[in-house]
Write a structure and sequence with these properties.
The protein has about 550 residues and is an alpha/beta fold. Helices cover about 40% and strands about 15% of the residues. It is built from 20 helices and 17 strands. The protein has helices at about 35-45, 45-60, 65-75, 80-85, 145-165, 180-200, 220, 240-245, 255, 260-265, 275-290, 330-335, 380-395, 415-420, 420-435, 450-455, 475-490, 495-510, 515-520, 530-540; strands at about 95, 120-125, 130-135, 165-170, 205-210, 210-215, 225-230, 235, 270-275, 340-345, 350-360, 360-370, 400-405, 440-445, 465, 470-475, 525. The strands form three sheets. Strands 10, 11, 12, 13, 14, 15, 16 and 17 form an eight-stranded mixed β-sheet that branches. The protein has a seven-stranded mixed β-sheet with strand order 1-2-3-4-5-7-9, with helices on both faces. It has a two-stranded parallel sheet with strand order 6-8. β11 (about 350-360) and β12 (about 360-370) form a beta hairpin. The longest helix has 17 residues, at about 145-165. The two termini are about 55 Å apart.
Amino acid sequence: LIFIDHSGLKTTGGQYYSPPSTVRRQTFTDNCYPHPKQLREDRMNTSDRLERLKNLREQAKLGGGTEKIEKLHAQGRLTARERIGLLLDQDSFEEFDMFKTHRCTDFGMEQNKIPGDGVVTGHGTIDGRIVYVFAQDFTVLGGSLSETIAEKICKIMDLATKNGAPVIGLNDSGGARIQEGIESLAGYSDIFLRNVMASGVVPQISAVFGPCAGGAVYSPALTDFVVMVKNNSYMFLTGPKVVKSVTHEDVTVEELGGADMHASKSGVSDYTAASGPDAIAYIRKLISYLPQNNIEPPPALNSEDPVTRTAAQLNSLIPENINEAYDMKEVIRHTVDDGDFFEVKEHFAPNIIVGFARYNGMSVGIVANQPAHYSGVLDIDSSVKGARFVRFCDCFNIPIVTFVDVPGFLPGTAQEYGGVIRNGAKILYAYAEATVPKVTVITRKAYGGAYCVMSSKHLRGDINYAWPSAEIAVMGAKGAVGVLYGRQARKEENPEAFLAEKEQEYQDTVANPYVAAQRGYIDDIIEPANSRLRIIRALGLLENKRDSNPMKKHGNIPL
């Protein structure tokens, strides 16, 4: 209980108020509310008051102190404020809660209070567009999360959701602050709730610059995009020592939760940066393709790349041998503005390609099968990767352009046991649910169920094109002929010649784009060189598209 000396204060009647003699006077300290006499002195000495504010700000900016900052720099890492400085436009950062400190008094924590308490929060601009940002400060108690840090992060997440602007989290934390116990765990839960409530409302991006372990990993996992730094950042629920004690596996930090592992095996990370500045540059470019929120259209830029530009190389890109591979990224680069394709999750499930590009300045999401990897076949990982990206684009009004060359779903016990049916249904669900403009180009194979799920006309694809090389059928000609004429072939004098003749017959009759075009499942068969022009015209046609799903609380995607 704080007793304040009110002596010397005038009442409204002009008389000075004298406190009862039983009230004890207490000298003003920095830990108490200002004594009225002190307030009067401050009014008379404005320069000192401003100097004090300046000193407090400088103290807050130092975080854990110069020694810890130097140690961080020696490791090739940036401080929280340096990362924010690289991320945001110059002089645009406005900080919140710079002077907020933790409230813990256990384990000697009352002697270790630092302004800001391990996280820097606020808002600024990227290319003139508002974003909210928080950056954990590893120099302050290892960036460990306290109750007050959680409050600071939740505040900017709430503001971002209300005001319709992206949230960017720069993570560098040792996890929950052990000294606080349940308060720290409650703080994490509060953040997780905000992640879920903001999902599909504003874009959420996480960058991991250091450790991220235990419950701390779930906030980045709930966001739309995750960026990690090679040899610096790692994410796992349980560390190598726990793994060793429980499963007797010997595993290093990098093997268990390093950036390369999460980019190629788990799919948790969307990009592995070579350095901290590289990670920041990736985020800045990613933001340029995204709208501020789920109400706005995606950003459009002026493009000097001619709409009518043709790409003659595409006319000869598809090999004569239907089993020969080619690089679908060449198709993408030849059709998008300036050949600029911003890929996401490049090293995870590379048999499907996802990323952002522009057509005539319009931001679009691109999904494409990749014949150069596993023949472009769909499997568990590629289905989940594609579904997640399609759903993101649909959340934020980003049109989807799909390039199809898919021979089917990957067979085998590993896939069936792993749930390829359940997981393959995710990409089907995502395309069927999406109401944004959807333009599809079938370049070669579109077989069986894989044809259905890749933004076919039957899943509300808006404009569906095919190249003359397209093969739309239940299966490839060779497999189909084997089923249809296998027994008969064994009775022929020359089985190979007989099957070859039937394969050609099947190719001419079924495995081509013209049968689908006759039924209206393909809107047009186009010259490959003109793909850019036709895609841009289709997107222009669909610019004011309105579509909706039946009213419901939410669907039940096969997770």
